[in-house]
Specification:
Blueprint lengths: L1 H14 L20 E2 L4 E7 L5 E6 L7 E5 L3 E5 L11 E2 L13 E6 L2 H7 L4 E7 L6 E7 L13 E6 L8 E6 L5 E5 L25 E5 L25 H5 L6 E4 L6 E4 L5 E5 L5 E7 L10 E2 L2 E2 L23 E4 L11 E6 L12 E5 L4 E5 L6 E6 L4 E6 L5 E5 L4 E6 L2
Amino acid sequence: MRGLAAALLSLLALTLAPAGAAQGGYPAEVALPPVHPSEVAYATRTLVEGLPTPVSVVPLGDGSGRLLVVGLGGRVWLLDAGLALRPEPFLDLAGRVTGLEGEQGLFSVALEPPERSAERGDGRRLVAAFTEKGTGDLVVASYPLADDLSGADASQERLLLRVPMPEPFHHGGQVAFGPDGMLYVSVGSGEAAVAHLHERPAKAQDLRTLLGKLLRVDPFAAPEAGAAYAVPPDNPFTASSDPVAAAAGARGEVWALGFRNPWKFTFAPGGELFLVDVGQDRWEEVNLVARGGNHGWPAREGAECHYLPDAPGLVEPDCPHLELVDPVVAYAHLALDPEGGQSVTGGVVVTDPGLPELLGRYVYGDFVTGRLWAYDPASGRVERLLDTGLPLTAVAAGEAGEVLLLGVNGVLARLERLP
């Protein structure tokens, strides 16, 4: 496992390296947003070691304190209330999931809300997102859960969604149920890590494709013809919401657009949706996503527009023809700011009473540097909390609200306040 994690870390560090500041006619001078040192000292406490290439952690939410850990290789593992790893997988999809070429694998899982599952009447299910062996497609599927939440049955797969990916990179791959009971799915642009933007169509700006989008679907209502889910009629680009866009072929599943690799998102206690988008050349983004919002890729990264003179009509200086949503945080790549990072990992809005100064703040990190920051939505202030030393693949909340930090090196840790 250690060799696999090391190989994965090296691969991702390479594929997420900056493509060079000269591309796209960027401005020579960069105004770095202010980052303040934390007035409180924090540390990490290691809880578990030896997890198999973990990329996501989710509480079972039944009051038991148990956690599900998603392994990139295709297996979901169960940690009991004492954080002991059960030897057999909670769900084994290793036969369905691609190998670890590119940025492929099993990305995330989400447990259906029990009240919504009751509407369907055939039991509660676990939803998973992964790249499929043989096709490389991004697949979202569900599996029946045991009544005692001791496991899920891989043999009873129900396919929900399939998105063909042009290349084995930038899949997104987060699934989560929102406070509205709908299933949200992040889908990346599916392009090579350092692709020149003007060599490829702007899929993330094309409403006729699901690439580069955040989707919102209802897997509990009567499905659309030929689909395993219903499209909520209040989605922004449905015929009832935007008949012009729908008539032009817009996909009704789209909730927001303009993302490169939106591989992590989370809902705040108030329902706000925070999503991180991994950048290409210079910037990493934290976005506050709203219905129908356009977050810019590939026209813009961070606050900078790409000027591509050989792509007329797609991107122009200052992006004058696009109504874009600014990221709430954009931090620079290491070539521009040694105090920045290289690949953003989200993120959780803190509810842990043991972290009083961070309550209500969004805590996020960086995969390459292991740095951890906190964003205050009320003031816009960003504080640097600490360098964790972990190759962070997830910053998440446990069942009691504790802030959990996951490293692809197999470590699960907890963020704690020092006296």
